[in-house]
Amino acid sequence: MKLDDIKKLHQKKYRQSLGHFLVEGEHLVLELEKAAASNPHWKRAQLFVTSAYESWRSPWHKQVISDRQMAQLADTKTPQGILAVVPLPTPASTESANEGKAVYLHEVQDPGNLGTILRTLAWFGGMRCLLSPGSVDPYNPKVVRSSMGAIFHVPLEIDISLDALSQRYPNIACLDIGGDSLTEPGFQDHDCYLFGNEARGVPAAALTKLNAHRYTIPGAAAIESLNLASAVNMAAYELNRG
């Protein structure tokens, strides 16, 4: 890919039209290499480095560029000098023989929240992440960075509507105020776990249509609600507690 096109990948519309996204920094590139060992899709990356990383051994085609050029391509203010351009995954590249359970995020907006949630799902394993239309782009550089490489290890699907969700998962749970405690028996028996937008939650009409079982994380109620990423963390822990 030409350098002028790579600069455009900071914007969602160009990530979509060009079909690529940026992976910046040594740690993330290492995580990408790990993922490429088990998923052929990630082997199609292209690496750009400054002279500081000229000796870096990589499974991908590598191009050495100047510090000035790297500063123009990178999203961070002080780039390390190593950056990969990666094709966006296709639905087929995220499929697995055992789909397992899913976490569905309805109109999640904060890149940091999504990145943290992906880290949680990667840590526990065995779950995929589904994003509704209107959610933050998971290939936004801020999401990729905050995921710390988890985005390469978690099956991820975007633009999944609530209607499609109900057809795919017959047994849905939702984390919401006023539900049963998630520590009660039965929480682990669902196929899909639904979490709402940071400010608005999930529309009540949608929960009724989905026939979703509501659960609540018990607390002292000193504050109105938990951060979205914290709620997913606790739910994922409970699901894996056995």
From TrEMBL:
One GO biological process this protein is involved in is: methylation
Q: Which SUPFAM superfamilies match?
A: alpha/beta knot, L30e-like
Sorted alphabetically, the Gene Ontology cellular component annotations on this record are: cytoplasm
Keywords assigned: Methyltransferase, Transferase
Domain RNA 2-O ribose methyltransferase substrate binding, first and last residues per copy? 22-92
In alphabetical order, the GO MF annotations are:
RNA binding; RNA methyltransferase activity
Q: What is its EC number?
A: 2.1.1.-
**Top-rank lineage group of the source organism:** Bacteria
What the entry lists under PANTHER family is as follows: RRNA METHYLTRANSFERASE 3, RRNA METHYLTRANSFERASE 3, MITOCHONDRIAL
Which family, according to the similarity comment? Answer: Belongs to the class IV-like SAM-binding methyltransferase superfamily. RNA methyltransferase TrmH family.
What is the protein's given name?
A: 23S rRNA methyltransferase
Encoding gene, per UniProt annotation:
nhs
